[in-house]
Each structure stands twice: as C-alpha cells, then as structure tokens.
Design goal:
CATH architecture of the largest domain: 3-Layer(aba) Sandwich
Strand order of the largest sheet: 3-4-2-1-7-8-9-10
InterPro entries: Glyco_trans_1 (IPR001296), Glyco_trans_4-like_N (IPR028098), Glycosyltransferase_grp1 (IPR050194)
Protein name: D-inositol 3-phosphate glycosyltransferase
GO biological process, one term: carbohydrate derivative biosynthetic process
CATH topology of the largest domain: Rossmann fold
Radius of gyration: 22 Å
Organism: Microbacterium bovistercoris
Largest sheet: 8 strands, mixed
Distance between the termini: 30 Å
Shape: globular
Pfam family, one: Glycos_transf_1
CATH class of the largest domain: Alpha Beta
C-alpha cells in the first residue's frame, strides 16, 4: 500500500510525458502584433518545459517550403515556413494561397505526427490544419485572436461589400472553431463576444501571459513627462486621438510622446503631428528591438492606448510589468487591465478632452499617488504570469481539468 505522497507521484506520471505540439499561425515572427507575440511566447515556453514544438507559419517570401530551426524567445523551435505572398493593402501581412492550405497541412501533419494541433486563427493556415487534423483524428485546440471586423480595414473593398463578407467570415470561423476540442480567447469579455457572435459555447478565457522577468520596473517619479504607445499604427489603434489630446494639455507639463511600431498609418500620423505643431514633441521610433523596447518602457512615465479593438493587449501588460500607470480607452478588453483610479484611468473612446483630462491627472499626481499607481500596475499584471498560461494550455492539450 502506498502513501498519499506516493499516490500523487504515481497519478502525475502518465501526464509527465512530453508532447509533440504543432502550432499553426497565420502571423508569426518577424511580424509584430499581439497574436504573433503570444504564439512566440507560448511556443518558447512549451519548449522550455521539454515539449517538442513545431510551428507552421508563412515564409517571409514566396518560395518553396522551408523546415529549419529558429531561435525564438531564446528557445529553438522547429519552423515549417510555407510559401507566402504579401497582401498589398497591408504593409507587412503575408498569407499562403487558401487553396493550398490543405495540401500543406497534409504534408506537415504527416511529417510531424503531433499529439495535438493548436491553431492561432481560423483564417488560412489554421483552417487547413483543423480540417486535415480532424480527418486524421488528431485533437485540436483553437485560440481566437481575431475580430473579423478589423480585417475589413485592409480589404480595400467598398463598404457595401463588407457586410456580406463579414457574415461569410464569421460563418467560416464557426465551422472551423467547432472542430476544436477546446476554444480559447484571451479574456472573458472576448469569450463572451465570440459566443454571442457565432454558435459556440464553453469558450475558455486564457491570458496571453507575460514573462515578468523580461521587464525592469522602476518605482520612482520620472524626471520628464513621457507618454508611450507601442503597437501597429493602424486605424483601430486611434493614435490620432492621443495626438489631438496633446494639444489640450497644459504646455507647462512639457509632455513628450514616444510611438514605437510601424504600420500603414505612420505617414498620416507624422503629417498630423506636424499639422498640430507637435513634431518636436513626438518621436516615431518605428520597429524597435526587444532591448530598445525595454528601454522605452523604462524611460516612460505613462502608457497611453486609445485602441478600440484589443482582445487583450500584450503591450499594456508589458507596460504594467514595467511599473507604468496606464490611460486606456474604455473598450473591449482594456478595462480588464486598466482599473480606473487604481493603476491609471479609462477614458471614453475617441473623446479627446476626456483623454487629455486623464493624462493630466497622472502627470499632476503627487509622488505618493504616482507610486501607488505604479504598484497597482505591478499587482494587476501578476495574474497574467506566463506560467499560468502554460499550465492551462498543457491541461487543454492533455484533456485534463484546468488549473484553478
């Protein structure tokens, strides 16, 4: 007869076997966006835990398939890069021809023989993998990072065409996601949105997670009032709202705005900054390295995000892990991270005056109040630790009860 301790060891033994995991991504490194960053951290974290991880993603140019090892987040991953072409209305988005997705799925699944397939979207690569994996009896986990409405910003189609296209997109999403054993999305609000939009239930909210070891929080007043935004410069990010709010601020605050990231709206935003007389107070850094990004977080005194389309916002979590107060739009998932009056403030989306007032409240806070907001950011991001995320996905892959 074994002791209770022995029993716990024995019961854990069957689940200790490393898994062969195939992750399908329509966007991945070197792309810079929330879905890509999540997939990179997930894959690297699973490798660190001893799993055999393979990632299927578009190649950076159109050529034959390439399978090789890439180091992502410090960990070696087996990458299966598929021939891709750039979507011309978009500044970096690449895709594989949809009619080839099943062909590539068959090829990769035969080569890898995974225990589980985890798709990061229902669009092209994920769609093909889900259909062939189901045929072969391989379990599927699906994570939705997409709001189909956002894709319409890049279709270059007239408005009257968008409504039927949107319906077709969500119908196809439903068909694909219903093939999965489990469907996840970054927040409860995003899960509720998905369940209301398509005929699906039981969507599991799982934070994208963040490795707080990668950030250096500095608990102290800043010498200068520097705002920071990090992300793609696209329409739904509404960076123009932040620029307009700067014109409402007291000049005595001497606020500088750092913008890190590229996108199709960069030239328009640079032109707007010049029009508003802000050129000497706004710096467009473009794409930055991880080291440069950490430096920007450390120098900043406030993170501002006016986006109306965040399913979670990894950059906001990075800012919180860097001990920054946050002023964010009261939209979609940002209220899950920004608790009004605690680690910053929420403002009415698109309301320039409200945003300016909230920015002013942070920059005129006493040192003690500013430190309180900093510590609230650190406390708030603790629940998004990447290890919790990895524990949850391991349980989903093994079809085990989810960790508390």
């Amino acid at each position: 007869m074994t002791s209770s301790d022995d029993q716990s060891v024995d019961s854990a033994t069957p689940t200790a076997r490393p898994l062969t995991i195939l992750i399908g991504c329509d966007t991945f490194y070197p792309d810079i966006n929330g879905a890509a960053r999540f997939a990179e951290r997930l894959a690297a974290g699973l490798v660190e835990r001893g799993h055999d991880v393979h990632v299927v993603a578009p190649n950076t140019r159109y050529r034959r398939s390439a399978t090789h090892t890439e180091v992502i987040e410090g960990e070696p991953l087996t990458m299966h890069r598929l021939p891709s072409v750039r979507w011309l209305p978009h500044d970096w988005l690449r895709f594989i021809w949809p009619w080839r997705s099943k062909h590539y799925a068959r090829k990769v699944l035969t080569e890898v023989q995974p225990d589980i397939v985890h798709i990061q979207s229902h669009i092209i690569i994920g769609r093909g993998l889900a259909r062939i994996a189901r045929q072969r009896g391989i379990p599927i986990v699906a994570t939705n990072h997409v709001m189909a409405e956002n894709i319409l910003d890049h279709t270059a189609m007239p408005e009257f065409v968008n409504a039927p296209v949107l319906k077709l997109a969500w119908d196809d999403a439903e068909r694909t996601l219903r093939m999965a054993r489990a469907v996840t999305t970054p927040t409860r609000k995003a899960a509720d949105f998905l369940e209301k939009t398509i005929d699906i239930s039981g969507v599991v909210p799982v934070s994208c997670g963040i490795d707080r070891r990668n950030y250096t929080p500095v608990i102290a007043p800043r010498e200068k009032n520097r705002m920071l935004f990090v992300g793609r410069l696209t329409g739904e990010k509404q960076v123009d709202v932040v620029l307009r709010a700067m014109t409402r601020l007291d000049p005595a605050l001497d606020v500088h705005f750092d913008i890190a990231g590229g996108g199709d709206q960069r030239k328009n935003l640079e032109h707007l900054a010049a029009q508003l007389g802000l050129s000497d107070r706004v710096t467009f850094h473009g794409r930055v390295t991880d080291e440069q990004l950490r430096d920007l977080y450390s120098r900043a005194s406030l993170f501002v995000i006016a986006s109306i389309a965040e399913l979670q916002s990894i950059v906001t979590m990075e800012a919180m892990a860097s001990a920054l107060p946050v002023v964010g739009a009261d939209a979609v998932a940002l209220p899950h991270l920004v608790h009004d009056g605690e680690n910053g403030y929420l403002f009415e989306p698109g309301n320039v005056d409200d945003l300016a007032a909230k920015i002013t409240r942070v920059f005129t806070a006493s040192p003690a109040e500013y430190e309180r907001m900093q510590r609230a950011s650190l406390d708030g991001v603790a629940v998004h630790d990447i290890n919790r995320t990895l524990d949850t996905f391991e349980a989903l892959y093994r079809d085990e009860p989810l960790p508390a």
